[in-house]
Amino acid sequence: MGEIQNALDDHIPYRYQEEVFQQAQKENIIAALETGSGKTLISILLIKWIASQSKSCGKVIVFLVPRVTLVDQQKETIKKHAALKVTKLHGAMEIDLSDRVGWKRKLEKYDVFVMTAQVFLNLITHGLWSIKQVSLMIFDECHHTRRNHPYNNILREYHQLPPNQRPKIFGMTASPIWNTSKPEASISELESNMNAKIMGVRENIAELELNTPKPVEVIEVYPLPPEEYECPLTALYQCLEIIDSSTWRELDIPFDTLKNRYLATYNNTGPYAAAMFLYLELKRHLIRLNDADVGIECDGQGDLTSAPCASVRDERSLIRVILDEFRYYFPPDPFSHEIPVAVSLTWCTPKVKCLVDILLRFESQSPTFQCIVFVEQRQVASTLSKVLLVIPEANKRLRTGYLVGEGVNSDGVARESDRVRGDPIKLFRDGHLNVLIATSVAEEGLDFKECDLVVRFDGLQHMIAYVQSRGRARKQESTFVLMVRQDDEALMSKYHELKASEEAMASHYRTRHLNTSSEDDSDNETDDEGYFLDLVDRERYVVPSSGAVLTYDNSISLIGRLCSLIPHDSFTPAYSPLYEGGFQSTLRLPSALPLRAPDLVFQGPRKCRKKEAKRAVAFMAVVRLRELDVFDEYLLPVSSDQSESDLPLLGDRSKHTGDVPEKLVVNVRDPWCMGETLWLHPVVVSGHTMAGLVTGTSLPCTEVIYGGRAIGILPGKILQLDDEIAHERRKSMEQYTKRAIEYSVTASPFDSFLSLYLVPITDDYLPDFQRIDFLLRFPKGCSDWSDAPQNSDEYVMMCKYRSMSMHTLHQIRHDLTPLSIPLEGSREPSSLTYRDHWTQLWSKRHKSVTISHEGPLVECWHLPRSDDGSYPLNPSEVDRQPMNTASQGRLFPFAECLWMPIPSQIRQLFEALPALAQRITHEYRARSALRDLGLPPIPVNLLIETLTISSSGFSFNNQRLETLGDAVLQLCTTVHLLHKYPNRHEGQLSDLRQKVVSNRYLFHRALDNGLERFVNSEVGVVRKWRYVIAKDASSSSDIPSRFASREYPRRSLQDCMEAILAASFITGGIEMALRAGCSLGLEFGGPLPWFMRYKQISTSTRLPPLMMALEEKLGYKFKNTYVLREALTHPSSANRLDGEDCPSYQRLEFLGDAILDLVVVKYLYDKFPDATSHELSLSRARAICAPTLAYLAITRLELHKMMLIDSFDLNRAISRYIPILGMLSAPEIVEKWWKYDAPKPLSDVFESVIGAVLVDSGYDYERTAAVTEHVMEDVLEALSPSTAKDPISQLMEWCSGQGCTNVTFEKKLKEDSTKVGVAALVHGTVVVGPLFLTSRATAKFVAAEHALEILQDPNHPCSLTSLCVCTSSMAIDQDLELPQNGTEESYKSVLFLLSQMNDCLI
Questions:
Q1: Which alpha helices (DSSP H) does 854-1013 contain, by range?
Q2: Among 334, 688, 1274, 1311, who pairs with 284 as Cys (CB 3.0-4.6 Å)?
Q3: What positions does the domain Helicase C-terminal occupy (predicted)?
Q4: What are phi and psi of 766, to 5 degrees?
């Protein structure tokens, strides 16, 4: 004990704390001590003692708290006073339950885990941790351990372990008795649940009372509120009440809930605080709506939907105007404390005035005043803290903040803590705040040592609230104030009852175990009869492979979660399990689950309680569904909250688990280097060898078209250089190449060492050092023209005052001299002489310019530099046409000109060198990728396109291939998942597929394979010469580095993955795509072709007459009638009766959706080779959207006549659309898809029939694609990349072009109905509508189309010229910009109320 006490520094335990600690060492106990008595210090003593035991090695200590707000406090306290590694966990941290490896690492890394109880329960349930790995469990505020609280569920698992494997238990509470009417039963239940004894201080009571003084308790009575307030801000609520309720529903603003909370706040704190709450909540919702997506989007299932855009903004404009009128009275946003006006107490209730008087009275008595005010509702805490800051009587003395739960509650009302100014708990502890307004979140556990006043602004409900809130007053001589309205006798009575019973109950549990006997356990039952009998009969199931635990407590929620994931359309109710019976329950699972009939119905055992009977049968069902792999080994139904890196089907976890930046810095494969061995590759121009390309790598033979000429390299050979002069020879080749690059490409010198040389060669394919040395004799040009070759193609010339600009000689003009007058029409401006022009021009760059008066002039042609490294990947005839590179004739004084021995052919090669080097780089990487990644034989050009990202700027990139590859990935993954998980429904499979096709998953697979080394990210333009040796590499290294550092976006890797799949598919169909996917580590089930993997069983049963016509329309004959029947069965008709299994089409629809996606994209890819990725996606969406597929289902296949449906509403809806869709042509449905909102099951059944063809054909994709293209022939022919704009865009653009900007859409409620329609208005006049369709999105499109026709008709009474008054004077005040989408009466009412408010304020 002495060592422990010395380690605690200034936190030396008192004797009463040592008393409890010593008892905790001997047995499991519940420390029942007053708040502020130091229970946490006792727990730290126990933590240190446990951590010092050898038997605790390899185990962790778990400190459990009931609220998130306590996690940080307890973690910091333990971390400060114990030399252990402490971490925290709570639900707000977005914990990933599927990260198995991550949790294992956490266990190994930390000693103490402070967490909320639900997080720990989840870890146990899903097998991430086991209680056996814990040496000590501490339960803070352990009085919650009852019924189905997470504390109690954790301890039920604890009781399943053998005693020698159980951790020690330590509970802490100030109020162990939750039921004051039955204290003995409360205590017995708590002790039984926790396997611990409640212990109070027995021997050192005086010391305890000395160190935990209770506050003085005071009753403050306040008067009744007035009937009316002298506050004009009630007009805000009156204005908002005018807005139609359908508008609030459409904007997804819970105004009814806000109204109730407004009224509650009004009654509690007064009109100003209530109006502030309403104002800020609506501002928050408007911010949310401003962040919403705008325009037409694809919902991910092929359906095009109209997201709320202009119409939503129109509807909320009136709300914005109303709020804008009140902006000078409230904070500017929901997170601000800046209120621009002073708030009079006449705008508040007498209750608030009483609170202000209390706070000011106590503040004046203490220079370190600190107070907590407890309220019941969050909005009261928020608004009250702001109001107190601007009440003139208090604003200079009170520094307030508020503490509530975080997020948005189930009603859509914000409940943020006061985080805008920092952590309110920390600010209060540090003294920056002296008043903290809090809800019950601050009642339990939070330690505020300097708090000397606690005020219960709202009443007391139970003993725990009384004890816990009073316990926040920790300072000596503190005060607890209970505010009571003058007529509230019930609250006064409740308070006196709690106060009287508190001491009696404390005495009871202190002396409870002084005389222990067997009779003490006689009264150990709860309120429910048979509760303990049911507990005895409970079962428990542990998954052997993972340790995940199934209990009666979590089985019902697991079944419910599974059913909630089953997709359903608007004609099928949401799926849920059906429990029948009373004390013996029967569970019927939805028939939409792809299970045999016996696995859909479970009969449970008899139980004493009905609730327990439901738990028992749910338990039986989960065990069976786990055997069928419906639940995975962690008892998860594989939902969207899982991480794809640890799905069971993914095999080994990726090696790359950390955060990855948006930009990757990667060493990519690069052939350009220098080593002891050099390779010389002859460079061929149009069949003639012109030069040699020297580098440290044997390069692949390749060719590029540049300037209309074919330039390529031949196989290289090792360059043999004499050892004695090798260094000088290398240096000569480098200097020659540098000079030529500077003149031909960069226009500026550079110091880096080159990684390639381009030099003239002899007939023996050796460097022509004679010509190289000749150039290096005159590195800046030669002025002696007597040595110049006669043939001007053998050299280039330059002016010494324009040294980096090369020219070719055209002729010498002996008829002109520097003193000649510039010829008419020449390039030179009007100067007296050529000499004057040049002197003025070149003096800008050179300090001294001396131009000779004599000598002829030289007429030459400028040779442009070429820094363009781009090239045509698949050159056309146009690319092969010769191109003249010389241009722009110039005149220079002959005396100022130099010549340089660079022949025309060599100069042209250097002009093409950036493109040639880039092509070589691309091909080298492509061939390396084929080899290193084990890819199937994809053509080199196609693989180059695959590895080239869009940011490189080349005329080719992988974006088109990425679009096609995404469809290949979807189909290959879908087929594999369907067979791997035959008992999982479409919702589960969709979640699984989403994981293994997600960008994050593809990215990690790419990193695992090393794909990042082969990405082409360099831009085509080479302004800075990139083919140089890195500074940290040596030009003579024994092992040259064939890598170069590049930076490119992270997303590029997943694009390359999908593009590789597309390239494989183009080359060798699905079979080659499967091989490529497996090489890349994707979940395709192996490289074996589908027809060899999945054997389809043929049935001899004849096809039912109802379905015979379908074969003829498809052009395909089914071998398996079962699969076709499944494809035509709507979920409403699915059954498992009379021993005949007949599932619905949902799994086949899941497959067919992926097939259609690939077939359509491949068709578009081939038909429109110049279409962009965006154009391909847009055309695809039109082809596979729900209206188009419904059209095909009715017109081409007549599936409505064959569908098996057991839904009157669906049959009626389909019958309505049969004549509508039957009258359309394919081009019409492609162009006008938005006009038709056919029942979704029509498109679903079309997809399922296509899926059935693939299954029945033995997974013959080519045959299935042929059938699909045959059925969709008309629609596919109608597709085009030049997609017309939707009617809304056309209407807005046309009206804007006519000068009218006042076009809006308004939702209107149908008379005597709740149905909402859409109308199109111009300047408030209804032009079209309201239209009442099954979809408001469709109605809006139709309204826009009709409105455009009417507005463009000059003879129509509602033409634009008749309605538009944009050029006229506005009738309303221009300072008040009212929208035009509301009714005239609404605006008049709002203006009247606002004017009244302004008059009142004035």
A1: 904-932, 940-947, 959-980, 986-996, 999-1009
A2: 334
A3: 354-522
A4: -120, 155
